[in-house]
Amino acid sequence: MTGRTFRASGRAARLPAEADSRKARRRRRLRQIRLDYWLYVMLIPGVLYFVIFKYLPMWGVLLAFKDYQPFIGFAGSPWVGFKHFERFFTDPSFGLLFRNTFIIAAMNLAFFFPVPIVVALMLNEMRLALFKRIAQTFIYVPHFFSWVVIAGITYIMLTTEGGIVNEAIAGAGGDKVNFLMSESWFRPLIVLQMIWKEAGWGTIIFLAALSGVDPSLYEAARIDGANRWRQMMHVTLPAIRSTIVILLILRLGNFLDLGFEQIYLMLNAMNRDVGEIFDTYIYTNGIQRGLFSYTTAVGLFNAAIGLLLIVAANKIAKRFGEEGVF
């Protein structure tokens, strides 16, 4: 028999074995699905959520490359290429929007991101369980307030007409400050609102990471003479470093996504020059003026910047020995 005949006979002999192995793998997979049946059932709502609200709307980005007319419809609207992007980049307001969005996003990243870590470390150091639970409850509560409520509380506290803060300033002999109309106070107020509302909720992940730190590491550090501060610096923080890096990367992915509600509720005619961002610009031009294709291009640009940031941050994290997100 020739070599070709031997190879053909060997291949023919392997085919039934490969078919049997595929059947065996399929049976094992079906058996595993039957064993974890309810887990897959519980997975269905999450999958449907992402398919309906995340993946299907992706077709809407095609509006950025069309001159969409509601009466003509999506399919009948003509393609215009990068016309809307060129219009946006040459618009005089582009520089203002990018500067305002970038500054507020950078302030949020610099001042808000470390706060949940610090609060989680402080809560982790508490030894009285009852006081710890009470403190956690109080710092979690603001997360469940809507931004309308937060803006209302801010107005009540800072207004010059009977606001608690201004009344205290006047009572101390100072002049009332118009925080709500001031350009210099707009961005700090946005950051402070974010810290008050979301810092407590952000501690949940870090507290979960802290609960997984091996207690024997603290015992070894105490034997070596490390005080509480050195234990935190050399044991606690290195143990949760990967969690911090992953959350930082995810945060950079939403770097320019500041949230429409908070900024819109705090905007007025006096602070618009420092508070107008991409999200509010999209609302005023897309919803109020009906420029759907143009504002879709603006939103796509915003999302593209976030994608570039998350990819760059992930590569930098891997270069420094961290796992990264992907």
TrEMBL record:
Stretches assigned to the ABC transmembrane type-1 domain: 98-313
Biological process terms in GO annotation: transmembrane transport
PROSITE patterns per UniProt: ABC_TM1
Organism classification: Bacteria, Bacillati, Bacillota, Bacilli, Bacillales
Family designation: Belongs to the binding-protein-dependent transport system permease family.
Gene Ontology CC annotation, any one: plasma membrane
Membrane topology field: Multi-pass membrane protein
Region annotation Disordered: where it falls in the sequence: 1-20
Keyword Disulfide bond carried by entry: no
Domain of life the protein comes from: Bacteria
Subcellular location: Cell membrane; Membrane
Gene source species: Paenibacillus sabuli
InterPro entries documented for this protein: MetI-like (IPR000515), MetI-like_sf (IPR035906)
Protein's recorded name: Sugar ABC transporter permease
Coiled-coil intervals: none
Principal subcellular localisation of the protein: membrane
Presence of the UniProt keyword Membrane in the record: yes
Record field: transmembrane: 35-56, 102-123, 135-158, 199-218, 239-256, 291-313
Key words of the record: Membrane, Transmembrane, Transmembrane helix, Transport
